[in-house]
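@channel sequence for tomorrow's demo:
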Amino acid sequence: MPAYIVARVDVTDPDKYKNYMALTPAAIEKAGGRFVVRGGAITTLEGPEETRRLVILEFDSIEKAKAFYHSPDYERAKREREGAAEAQFIAVEGV
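structure tokens (generated this afternoon):
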């Protein structure tokens, strides 16, 4: 069953965040994931206006999604994100 990681990110230091963005694609690919959404224009259809950056990653399973998040490669990227953004990451099973 596919699984997704949904990240809502408030970038506070765009220059520093670029370092994080440079590291993530290789870590995602190595873990068997792919970008479904990477930033892009957001239109709020209902509820409070969404102003955060939205990223959605797809993996073959929830186990692979969680393994990616805790992988050494992504741990390195997360350290680059510290001080550059506040983020919420959610793993969810697809259908």
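heads up for whoever presents: The domain at 3-93 is CATH 3.30.70.100 (Alpha-Beta Plaits).
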